[in-house]
Design brief:
The chain has 16 helices and 22 strands. Helix 2 runs antiparallel to helix 4, helix 3 packs across helix 4 and helix 4 packs parallel to helix 6. The longest helix has 18 residues.
């Protein structure tokens, strides 16, 4: 069983529009397939322009009332939603494993991160407050207030179908806006289940909606009248397109793009700890995440020792089905994506990198139709290689050496991206240098994955982000509201 209550009789994923489950009437679609077994889970029909227009109209109508509700009233459905997410956490995690492929532990962790954002959004009554000043001028008091804007859209990726919608949805709703989710067409089952749970809360119809679709549906949303802002997470070329198209149509935009994240390992680091965390960062979620650090730059004095430790840890990783106990690395999402990652490995070999550990022959008994690829470790990587510059989005780690921390920082900054990075060191001076000089939006020191908590924004620089305001935290409040200055004088007072 798929685990959705709202599939059509033909096994189709429905849109959620105006509080009602409706079948999209577009002419295209695709199957949702379990990447470990090859089992068809559901059919995902795509939305037409009329479907999108209906959702926008319903959202605008809902906004007129919802935006005037007391803020304390607006957060009550989020409290209810949080409790429902907690109650159904394991069920959601299992559905996520089947539709996406990550391990059960990774799925639970993803959903826990999403729940954190719902919790933070419940604090909107404090977070949405703005400033005031008595006697700003003779007999004048001045203040500013934050007001919601209207209908917002989030276009979310396949790699975190449970968490990333929750980077946006709770904040948009709690600040008084209405919200339309366009989830990835690859794995929309968890987003659909989120809509089912929201439907059990006191949220009015039309405040949150979901439309399924592909590229044409996205482009319709980007150009449509009646949408105030767009949030996007995905590859850099698409992020740039979303940014430019949305901005050209007068919309606010936050577009998270791709990444090429580097780890720096100094000679003062705890090398065993650094190796464990490096492997965890590179191979978690099969490397299919924008925070994966897939290149490690190591001071040459400890390079050989660190490389041996990394290979030792990589060799202990178990490739398998995410619902089977002991699995560390699940399948890649599609056969096409698996082949793309294999092509990167072959390119690395052709360009002269040394294969220290080869995971291409990984087999999982009983799951011969799965998209499995084991962990691969490259040594002797140089900055001019494709695997050092392009995002692989698979379980591939490259190692390169540097003479010192300064050269390592220079190497890490040489990519077009600026999403995240990590530094392993025992030196406070090196940590401070990295803090000031590394051109990344999220930086971890002695932490393998620089994932911000929900009350901080999720950063990104250079080609990893297009826009001004990021997801999560205070940035979300600024993105979903506009400030109005209120100046008052009472001459007779």
């Amino acid at each position: 069983m798929v685990g959705l209550e709202t599939l059509s009789e033909d096994g189709e994923v429905l849109n959620y529009v105006g509080g009602t489950w409706t079948a999209p009437d577009g002419t295209d679609g695709r199957d949702s397939v379990n990447p470990a077994t090859g089992e068809r889970l559901a059919r995902v029909p795509f939305s037409s322009e009329a479907d999108v227009a209906s959702a926008i109209s319903q959202g605008q109508t809902a906004f007129e009332d919802w935006s005037t509700r007391p803020v304390e009233e607006r957060i009550q459905p989020m409290f209810q939603f949080k409790e429902l997410l907690e109650e159904h956490l394991d069920e959601l995690a299992e559905l996520l494993v089947r539709d996406h492929g990550k391990t059960f532990a990774e799925a639970r962790g993803e959903l826990r991160r999403g729940i954190e954002n719902v919790e933070v959004a419940c604090g909107i009554p404090s977070m949405m407050q703005s400033g005031s000043l008595l006697n700003a001028a003779p007999d004048i008091d001045e203040s500013e207030v934050r007001q919601p804007l209207g209908v917002f859209v989030a276009i979310t990726p396949f790699n975190f179908p449970g968490m990333i919608p929750l980077w946006f949805l709770p904040y948009a709703v709690a600040t008084g806006n209405s919200f339309i989710l366009k989830p990835s067409e690859r794995d929309p089952l968890v987003p659909a289940r989120l809509m089912e749970l929201l439907d059990q809360t006191d949220l009015p119809d039309g405040v949150v909606q979901m439309v399924n679709g592909g590229k044409d549906t996205v482009n319709t949303l980007l150009a449509a009248d009646g949408i105030e802002g767009v949030s996007f997470v995905g590859s850099t070329p698409v992020a740039e397109h979303v940014y430019e198209t949305s901005a050209a149509h007068g919309k606010r935009v936050q577009a998270q793009g791709g990444a090429k994240n580097y780890i720096i390992v100094t000679e003062t680091a705890d090398l065993e700890f650094a190796a464990q965390k490096t492997v965890g960062s590179s191979y978690a979620c099969s490397g299919q995440r924008c925070l994966a650090n897939d290149v490690a730059v190591v001071e040459e004095s400890v390079y050989d020792e660190f490389a041996d430790l990394v290979v030792d840890v990589a060799s202990t990783q178990t490739v398998g089905y995410g619902l089977d106990e002991g699995t560390d690395i699940g399948p890649l999402t599609t056969p096409e994506h698996e082949q793309g990652v294999r092509n990167f490995v072959e390119t690395g070999i052709q360009e002269g990198a040394t294969v220290l550990y080869d995971g291409r022959d990984a087999e999982v008994e009983g799951y011969e139709d799965g998209n499995f690829l084991g962990p691969t470790v490259f040594g002797d990587v140089t900055t001019d290689m494709t695997i050092a510059q392009e995002e692989i989005f698979g379980p591939v780690l490259g190692l390169m050496s540097a003479s010192d921390v300064d050269e390592a920082i220079e190497i890490a900054n040489a990519t077009d991206f600026g999403n995240a990075g990590s530094l392993f060191t025992g030196s406070g001076a090196d940590a401070r240098k990295a803090r000031h000089q590394l051109e990344v939006g999220n930086l971890g020191v002695n932490a393998g994955t620089a994932a911000p908590m929900a009350f901080f924004h999720f950063g990104g620089m250079d080609d990893s982000f297009f826009g001004d305001l990021h997801a999560q935290g205070e940035d979300a409040i600024h993105f979903y509201t506009d400030k109005k200055v209120y100046i008052e004088r009472w001459p007779d007072a």
